[in-house]
Fold:
Amino acid sequence: MGLAPGRRIRRIGLTGGIGSGKSTVARHLVALGGHLVDTDAIARSLTLAGGAALPELQRAFGADVIGTDGALNRDRMRSLVFGDPAIKRQLEAVLHPLIGQEARRQAEAAGEAVIVYDVPLLVESSHWRQRVDRVLVVDCPESLQVSRVMQRSGWTEAAVQAVIAQQAPRAKRRAAADAVIHNEALTLEQLAQQVAELWVAWVGN
Structure:
């Protein structure tokens, strides 16, 4: 991820555990001029009714993974994935190429803007790490991740812990970072200020 001296940063990789505040940081980066490529949002669009991934997902996992609304039954798919690592790999084999294609399309539309790749599993993927100039990690204690997600999504503690278990450990994310925002005690104003300062340091304006 090294840059030649004086070269302007064009690609920021943003990551963090569920409930860390990553989406809020992404919004601040967009407000500063970044062009967001949100891989979670891309995955959701691929699995809505009529989404490009649905036919292959139905072939791979059966009709019961498609809900009555015609979209992916996320609760059903989540239960299958968390119960079997092989199914998780099979799901990724369907989704990841399609996510990559759409991410490239969106990045090409960025023009001269700095691209912000919001990738929850960036640290776990050498492919994504090679595509960015800098990695920004948003971090907070696991207990805070759990309480935030339970509050906003109504999930059980066990469901949140299951997601956390599928993600890289906090220490591994921090070790891969060029910068870490510790988002456990920041006000929204302080968080925005830290993002703005980092933008100036990396992008220059």
Remarks:
- Confidence is low (pLDDT under 50) at residues 1-6.
- Residues 41-112 form one domain.
- The radius of gyration is 18 Å.
